[in-house]
Structures are given as structure tokens and as C-alpha cells.
Amino acid sequence: MNDKPFNDHSYEEFLNEWKIMGSKCKKCGALSLPPRPICVSCFGSQMEWVQFRGDGKLAAFSSIFVAPPPMAKEGFGRNNPYIVGVVELPEGVKVVARITGVDAKKPDQIKVGTPLQAEFLQRGEGPSKQTILAFKP
Amino acid sequence: MAKKRKLGRGVAVVGGGLTKLGLFKDRNSKDFFSEAYMEMVESVDKGLDPIDIDAIYIGNFTNDFFVNQAHWAPIISDLVGHVPKPVTRTEGACASSALAFREGVFAIASGFYDVVLVGGLEQMSKCSTEEVAEGLAMAASPYEVAAGFTFPGVFGTIATAYFARYGATREALFDVTIKSHTNAPLNPKAQFPMTIRDFMNARIGRCRQKGEPVPNWKDEKDFLRDPVVNPPIAWPMHLFDCCPISDGAACLLLVAEDIAKRFTDNPIYVAGIGQGSGYSLHAKKDLTSFEATRAAAQEAYEMSGLKPEDIQFSEVHDCFSMAEILHVEDLGFFKPGQGYKAIGEGQTRLDGPKPINTSGGLKTKGHPVGATGVAQLYEVWVQLTGRAGKRQVPKPNLRVGGAHNLGGTGGTCTFTILERR
């Protein structure tokens, strides 16, 4: 696993294995999720992989009622909204993700700060397999 | 410590043009730009010989997607008889033409050119709403798109972070919308020149005509609370929190300060100009602020020697109602967490101490994305030259105005301060 480049492709490959993997700068220790090849804190370029635990809390969210074409294809829209959000991980970074297991039709009942656990939504099979990072209470 | 930046020589705005904004399916981007261009030529008090225009900078976000045509620079050059002189296209999502303005300013400040036309254009009405949403989403970060975010979704997300942090509610967004729509009918170029009360009356009229039950809203906020007329788009962003899809073009004539009086006795000078870049949502340290706006504002304030309290009025990039609240805080007009209260108190009304979006803003004037940056600066120029008619800011000695433009989800922001001397 150590020879993978610190880029989006590797991040997505790890998601397919149900792992949330980011980079840690060997020089200053800054964490990045998704991984980065260049540290934006100290400009270092020596990285190592770090696996994130997969828990977190909801920092912000929105319930999407007008879905973009790829989401509309999954059946989302006016009568079937979905939630996206920003999740704050205990390791000290944030990640954008789908939020599941909450009622998207009643967004006013969803609370910022809610503890969440990662889940991995699989779309497609074989080479077109894609894993979407989601979090649920 | 950042270097204090100055222009190599002064730059002035001496003319401007802006199309009526809206959806015009029988016209194209060339028609829009020529409309703005002809108004600009007419607006130069002492006249402009177009042969004197040394170069053109033109902002366009993604006509490539919207009308399947790229490479707009030579099309514009051909349109206005500028061939074979240079035209350069700039792209910074919804801040595309603020970048054109900035490049034009630098081109003159460097001494290379004396007279530069800057502008922007976008043609969005050929696409369906879904297609426009898809095109605009190309300006979000790949991570946001993959997670299912839309543009309203990004600002809806920011809104929940702001609400949780500062205790504001959706009602604060209503104050922004009502204020913008109060200015709208005063702007003859606005796409929706209607107050919220006008929308209410129109709806009531239609119900009466059709024999349907007549809604009984007690005021504008009550109307905005009604999900039938104001449905959620990306909660808490509802229909009336979102700017429309628009066609349009805008342009401004920039000249070197030392020759400005040849064009008009009332040049409007570039006092400060700033640009910043920003992280996408997940990498932002603070979800309730745009670092790109703060960087742009700092640069513009330092260059001009002016402070936020010196800016007598400003256009800010209200692509969504929530955005306006963040901008008035990031630009330093109000303290973090106080912006929504100030707006609620009426401080940003046309007759308030700090008028914001006198044009009606993107929400009501319209948002042809690549034209917006220059369209905002056009409004500041119009106000400072006393051409704003019914929406003229009612302050004695109106001298300093700002324009804040935001691209994408805060990835590119500019803040420009114009000054009448």
C-alpha cells in the first residue's frame, strides 16, 4: 500500500476496499483527506498513508430537493431528497460525504454535531465499481 | 508580512454598458455583447473613437458548455471591429469578468496599454435548468460533485454551519431576499424588477382568476415561509434564496489616469483591487467564511489605504441569500456573526448606512455568470457618476464603492474599490 501515489485515484481505490485513507506529511505531521502530494502547511512532499477511524460528527449539511442528473438517475429529486454534508473527523480533518439514515424530508430535525459513523455505498461492478463515502448516525 | 501593492500608474473607468438581463432565446452572446458595447460607447462623455482601444479582456465562464462554442476572444474582436488587435478571455467561474477587469487594470498600470475594454458575457437560456445546473457544477470541486453537492447545496450547507454557530435561523435569509427585491424595481435592467409584495399580488391575482383559494399571507416573510410558493431547492436554500439563470453581457472602458480627462470630466478611479483563492468545502478551516474574499479584501484595502467603514456602498456576490451574509462579514462591513443582524436591522437597505446590492443583486438583477463581475463594477460606476436614477444611493458626496465577485464555491474571489475624486 505504501507505493500508491498520494492522489484521488488511490483515495478512490481505498474507498473500494472500504478504507478511508489520507496522507500525513512526514515533515510537519499535517493530515490531508483526500490525500495530497504536496503539504499545504509546510510544502513538504514526503508523505505517508494514514487510515482514518471512520467516525465523526456532522459539521454542516443540506437536503437536496433539486438533484443533479447523476443523482436524479439514482431516483433522487423533489419527492425523494437526499442529504449531503461536511463531517468533522476526530483526527482533525473534515470530509464531504453523503449523509444517510436521517429523514431528508425533515431537515429541520437534523442537528449539527450529531455523531456519525462511516458507511460505504457501492455503485456498479467490476472496473466501473465506484464507492461513495457516506456517514450515518 | 504581505507586500503593500500599488498600481504602476493609475487607472480610471470612463464608460460602461450592461444589457437588460433576462432570458432571450432569440438572441445570442454576440447580440448581448454588442448591446453592452454600444451603451458603453454612448456613455463616454467626451466621445470614444473605437480605434483607440488597444486591447480587450473578456470574461466568460462556460459558453463552451452552454452553447457549445469556445474561444470567444476572436468572436468579440470580430464583432466590435477590433481585429487584428489582441483580445484575451479570462475564466474564473462566476468571477470570470472580474478577472478580465483586473487584467485590464494591470495591462494599463504596467504602461503597456492606455485604453482597454473589459467585459464579460454568458448565454445560459439555451440550456434546460438541469443542464445549467450541470454546467455550473463544473465550477465546484470534484469532491463536492462526487458526494452529490449542488451549488445551492454548498450554500445550504454553509447556512447550517452559520446557523449552528451564531444562532441565526432561516428568517435571516428572508431579510436578504426582501431587501434585494425592494431595490429590484428601481433597476430598469433587472431580470425580476419586482418586490416580494409584487410577487404576492401576482399570485393572489392568478388564484382569483382561476377561482382557486386565495392565499392569506400576513406579510412578505409569511409568503417566503410558504413552501407552495417558495419550495426548498437545497434546504435551507429555497427558491427565493437562489439567483436566476440569465443571459447578458457587460463592459467597461478603462484608461490610464493621465489621459482620463480626455474622455470625461468625471473619471472613476481604481482605488484598490484584490483577488484571492480558496479551498473547497472540506478543506476550509472555517465553514462560515471565504478565505478568498478575505484575502482579496485585504489586498484591496491595503492598496487603497481605505478601511471597510470607508466603503459607502457595495455590490456583493449574492448568488444565494446566505452568501450575502458571509460576504458583508468577510469584507469587514460587519463583525463575524453580526451580518445577519445588521441586514435584519435594515443597515444594508438603499437608504441605510451601508447599502448593499443597490442593483438588486444577482438575485433580482440576474446572474449571467461570466458577465457578473463587470456588471457589478458597472453598478458601482453608475452610482459614483450619479447615473443610478431611482436607485441612486441617497448619500451626500458619494465617493467610494466596492464590488465583490465570487467564483465557484469560493475558489476565486475579487474585491475592487472604485473612487470618485
Shape of chain B: globular
Rg of chain B, Å, rounded:
20 Å
Oligomer: heterodimer
Question: What is the percent of helical residues of chain B?
Answer: 25-40%
Q: What is the architecture of the largest domain in chain A at the second tier of CATH?
A: Beta Barrel
Strand order of the largest sheet of chain B: 3-2-4-7-1-8-11-10-9
Structural class of the helix and strand makeup of chain A? mainly beta
Q: Residue-averaged pLDDT of chain B, rounded?
A: 96
Binned strand content of chain B: 15-25%
Largest interface: A-B, 37 and 38 residues
Enumerate the strands of the largest sheet of chain A in spatial order, edge to edge or round the barrel: 4-5-6-8-7
Determine and state the CATH class of the largest domain in chain A. Mainly Beta
Q: Count the DSSP helices of chain A.
A: 2
Largest β sheet strand count, sense and barrel closure of chain B:
9 strands, mixed
Could you report the average pLDDT of chain A, rounded to the nearest whole number?
95
Description:
The complex is a heterodimer of chains A (137) and B (421). Chain A has 137 residues and is mostly beta strands. Chain A folds into two domains: 8-51, no CATH class; 55-136, OB fold (Dihydrolipoamide Acetyltransferase, E2P). Chain A has two helices and eight strands, in the order H-E-E-E-E-H-E-E-E-E. In chain A, a hairpin with a 5-residue loop joins strand 1 and strand 2 (31-32). Chain A is globular and about 50 Å long. Chain A starts with 7 loop residues before the first helix and ends with a strand. Chain B has 421 residues and is of the alpha/beta class. In chain B, helix 4 crosses helix 15. The two termini of chain B are 30 Å apart. Chains A and B meet through strand 4, helix 2, strand 5 and strand 6 of A and helix 5, helix 6, helix 7 and strand 5 of B.
